[in-house]
Sequence to fold (676 residues):
Amino acid sequence: MNIVFEKPKALADVPFHYCPGCTHGIAHRLVAEAIDALDIEGQTIGIAPVGCAVFAYNYFNCDMVQAPHGRAPAVATGIKRANPDKFVFTYQGDGDLAAIGTAETIHSGARGENITIIFINNAIYGMTGGQMAPTTLLGQVTTTSPYGRKAEIQGNPLRICELMSTIEGVAYAERVALDNVKNIRRAKAAIQKAFEIQRDKKGLSIIEILSTCPTNWGFSPAQSMDFVREKMIPYYPLGVYKDITKGGANNE
Amino acid sequence: MSRKVLMKGNEAVAEAAIRAGCKLFFGYPITPQTDLSEYMAKQMPNRGGLSLQAESEIAAINMVLGASASGARVMTSSSSPGISLKGEGISYIVGSDLPCVIVNVQRGGPGLGGIQPAQSDYFQATKALGHGDMHLIVLAPANIQEMAILTGEAFDLADIYRTPVMILADGALGQMMEPVDFAAKPVRVLPEKTWVCNGHQNKRPMNIVNSLYIQPEELEQKNIERFERYKKIEETEVKYEEYLTDDAEIVVVAYGITARIARTAVNLARAEGIKAGLHRPITLYPFPKKRLNKLADKVDIFLSVELNMGQMIDDIKLAIECKKPVKHFGRTGGVMPVPEEILDNIRRLAK
Amino acid sequence: MKKATFKTELCKGCGLCVTACPKHIVELDTKSINAKGYHPASCTDDDKCIACGMCAIICPDVVITVIKEDKDK
Fold:
């Protein structure tokens, strides 16, 4: 009997609180699978953000620290500098990482902090109920951009992987999506690669994961996957934006 | 053999921290605290520690949060506007029951204010360092030797009570030089840090460091537990110093640099036959409420001398339950009073 | 033999597994409601299941375990 698929050991045996079809659950699982693959649960400290994933500390079996909104990379810096041989990852949403925590994100990259950032980009604030995010697409309707996001009023969506790839201390930056099984497999490989970069002490690794928010987008889970494919990926192209182990970018 | 060295207050705090086993320092430049960060930057690499300049005060306090959560003795320092920025992180640190030491070398405010000494962050330090039901232990040194001693004690208090501890100094104490003796201090028994998030190594259950309790009853219980700790702190950790209070009819209450000027004023008053004394709180939280209340039974009047528009005076009134009048004399904006100004106030009240 | 096992009590009825199954044998069971109040997903024809694991990979709630018979035995 071969096990094709089972719950990874690093994932706690606790039901997720996420809405039906929300891809946070997939992303959590992929992080846990990477931790299992490298057998590093006992050496890993995870950082939960503020946002829908605030309860992430309940879902992993490694040590977990809950950070103030946007400050996860600073908290990670403190942990990593105190424990340079441990694995430290942050799990952050788009509001957390790309709005209130932009400075922490960029400067953890500039310092080349040897940490892994898992960045969930679903183009909306989920926990507070569907407000505009820094990554909300132009024209996208949210509760705080009820007439659709307009560049001249709310500005343009931020492309974080592209931004981070220009920073010297960033060792690895890849954007993946969870809209289908093939892309989920690709995301899994990317997350594992990010932890390997950290293991090899090469610098900061960031994996941006295009995710869904069926509840606040107002779509069914399946329609949400279509939105990722049809609307998000064209603005946020998938691919490796930086890989210092290969020297340079390798966009799809 | 003890040996005295001449040091700035800021440097003495840094040196005492390193000697107390502080392994990580996260700072951000701001006057008049900067030489503390500079001392750390110079010393830490040679003494088995790390000093890192953060991108902001906000980042620095959150680096402190992370380092503390993973078990390290850690410190940050700043001056007034920077402490305001740290407020969010401080609240999370309290909510997560994490130990650390935070130094505020106060300058005048509000806003960008000035860069000269002030004590106008008293309210913030003792009552409002962050949102939520919370306190920090606040220590107020009055000389450079005490800057060193209290810094060492701050780390122990932080570990014992799982709380951040603030050294509340000011620009004068930070910048002035005095001889300091870093002789070993008595070691306190410290609890084992069983809650640390540094990787469970498959040898213990996972730990969570967190300040979120979504169930109201659970959050209430956490706050009740924390305030039981505060109660113990109030019962056992109050520190103050008194001068000529035995027969005093008028007691000047002052802390930090102001207490030194007030002491001279008390001497001048005594020379004129006025029975003046000085009460100097060393712990601003816990405030020496019981002692002041007892003093109020025999003292005629209190004079709160502060480098602000009147902040500690409220705590004195509460402590003595308005049994006797309490007056305030303060200079603010970075202006330091001379002893004669305080003497004038003592004379006026003694009439 | 069952290849894909569904912990129906964890299922939120999002239906992503239904869209992912290449054999079109995963469906939401509209005749039952789990404790969470959803129609849980299940495999309607175990014989047709090829144990590819795609339903489990796209499931956000780790509802599904997939096993494959070892051909060597």
In short: Residues 4-199+222-236 of chain B form a domain with the Rossmann fold fold (CATH 3.40.50.970). The longest helix of chain B spans residues 216-236. The two ends of chain B are 51 Å apart (CA to CA). Chains B and C do not touch (no CB pair under 8 Å).
